[in-house]
Amino acid sequence: MLKHFIGHYPLGIHNGIEGLMNGDIESMTWESVNGWAPMGGALLGTKRTLPAGKFEAVARKIREHKIQGILLVGGFEAFHSVLQLADQRDKYPEFKIPMVVLPATIR
Known about the structure:
The protein is an alpha+beta fold. It has four helices and four strands.
C-alpha cells in the first residue's frame, strides 16, 4: 500500500522528461530514498532533455498521473525546463501547478 505524506503521494520520475514520456515513474516512500544522502549522485537518473516540442505529451502525462506539483532537482536544464512549462500555461492548464527547482549539479 502506498504511504502518503500529509495527503500527498510523491512520485519519482526516472530520467527526466524522457522518463515521464516513457512512464518510468514510481511511487516514493521514505524507504525508497533511505541511504541516498551519503551516496550522492542522481539515483533517479539524469537527462538534459528539455520539454520544448513535447508540451502536449507532457501535459497529457501530468493529467494522467494527476500530478499536482513538480519539484525538479538539477542545474540549468532543470531551471530552463520549468521556465518552458511556465511559458505554456496559457495553452496547457496542466502547467498551472506549483513548480520548484532545487538547484543542484553533479560534477
